[in-house]
Amino acid sequence: AEKKGRVEFRDVTFKYPGAEAPVLSNISFTAEPGKTLAIIGSTGAGKTTLVSLLPRLYDVASGDVLLDGVPVTEMDASEITSRVSAVPQKPYLFSGTIEHNLRFGKPDATDEELWDALETAQAKGFVEEKSSGLNRRIAQGGTNVSGGQRQRLSIARALVTKPNVYLFDDSFSALDVATDARLRKALKGKTKDATVIIVAQRVSTIADADEILVLDNGRIVDRGTHDELLETSPTYQEIVES
Ligand code: TTP
Ligand code: MG
After folding, report:
1. Could you report the per-residue pLDDT of 34-64, keeping only the tens digit for each?
2. In this structure, is residue 173 part of a structural domain?
3. Could you tell me the CATH number of the domain that includes residue 14?
4. Does residue 235 fall inside a structural domain?
5. Residue 50 belongs to what domain range?
């Protein structure tokens, strides 16, 4: 069977409610199952806004956002949630055990699936280090765990649902370079059939992506592989050198 999770943005322009100017203009791209699409660009470029349109945190005013050819505006919220897992830039953990937090998107997940997700997300050691294990309490907002641990638990939570599409919004920035590399390698093995969209700050995080979109001021100014962009994109070169 054909792999699911093809994401297409067709000439998308988006303004926040009440705002004058669009924060995204004429965005078009396709992200395919089995491939990794990366989005890079300076702060305020519109990366978080862009990835928020697929799970319909907002609906677009013009253009289309499609999942396997169907506009997301024609899909049920529950269908989108089961098929798209987003790891937000500021991941949210709620008050409850680690297990509750991980099972959020898939209540019937087995313990083995939880541990498997934790291992991929490089969070297994952190959960094992206390005897309470999966029953360890997380405070409201995850204030009793570090930013990097919050990110990794949030990545594990996304993995548990086994979606068609993963959105990682700056999910690797709180990790040191070695953990970042280990995590992405493990992730690759687990997300082979899915569409992976990664928003990143560091070029090292996305250098092996199949395609990279360079976003500047709400527009895609350049696109290509890391090697192509090094040759052709002054904006990308600036990010590499920063
Ligand atoms: P973002 O989409 O948040 O920009 P970004 O994700 O590229 O930035 P960062 O690297 O810092 O994470 O913002 C784009 C523009 O949209 C910016 O001018 C702020 C504005 N904006 C809103 O008006 N409301 C919102 O809820 C958000 C998220 C952004
Ligand atoms: Mg952002």
Report:
1. 999 999 999 999 999 999 999 999 999 899 9
2. yes
3. 3.40.50.300
4. yes
5. 7-91+164-241
Expressed in angstroms and rounded, the spacing between residue 48 Cα and the centre of ligand 2 is 4
Find out whether 209 and 226 touch, Cβ atoms under 8 Å. Answer: yes
Asked whether residue 139 is domain-assigned, the answer is no
pLDDT one-digit tens code per residue, 91-145: 889 999 999 999 988 999 999 999 999 999 999 999 999 999 999 999 988 888 9
52 Cα: distance to centroid of ligand 2 (angstroms): 10
- CA of 111 relative to ligand 1 center, distance in Å: 37
**Pick from 79, 37, 36: nearest CA to 55:** 79
pTM: 0.95
φ/ψ of residue 75, rounded to 5: -105, 150
Number of folded domains that form the chain: 1
Closest to 207 measured CA to CA, from 161, 176, 240: 240
The contacts of residue 219 (CB under 8 Å, 6+ apart) are: 24, 25, 26, 27
Q: Is 229 exposed, middle or buried (0-12, 13-18, 19+ CB in 10 A)?
A: buried
In contact, 168 and 132? CB cutoff 8 Å: no
Nearest-atom number in ligand 1 for the CA of 42 is: 10
Q: By C-alpha distance, which of 142, 123, 125, 136 is closest to 97?
A: 136
Name residues contacting ligand 1 (CB within 6 A): 16, 23, 41, 43-49, 89
Eight-state DSSP code of residue 227: H
220 DSSP β-pair partners: 215
- 126 falls within a domain: no
